[in-house]
Amino acid sequence: MANFYFLLLCLLELYPPVKTPGGFTSMLTPLLFVIGVSMVKDIFEDRKRYLSDQEENMRNARYIGLGSNVITDCKARDIKVGCFV
């Protein structure tokens, strides 16, 4: 929502009767700051999610084959829906 607010202010700066003394640049700076902080936060969250997924995929698991009663030990990443690789 903050991004939309600053974007709206930047667009209003392009309309001459609404111009403020700081101009377009004074409105663009907070917008770029908010977007930059959001990007950095998303990078850290995505990295954390990636590492969590890798840890989960390396867990030991047991697989019971379809149509048979054979239990196989494997890594969770090797189990696919409906088939065993």
Keywords, separated by commas or semicolons:
single chain; two-stranded antiparallel ribbon; 85 residues; rod-shaped; 4 strands; alpha+beta; 16% strand
Plain-language structure description:
The structure is a single chain. With 85 residues, the protein is an alpha+beta fold. The chain has one domain (2-8, 24-84). The protein has two helices and four strands; from the N terminus they run ααββββ. The protein has helices at 2-13, 23-57; strands at 60-64, 71-75, 79-80, 83-84. The strands form two sheets. It has a two-stranded antiparallel sheet with strand order 1-2. A two-stranded antiparallel ribbon has the order 3-4. A hairpin with a 2-residue loop joins strand 3 (79-80) and strand 4. Helix 1 packs antiparallel against helix 2 (23-57). The radius of gyration is 26 Å and the shape is rod-shaped. The protein starts with a helix and ends with a strand.
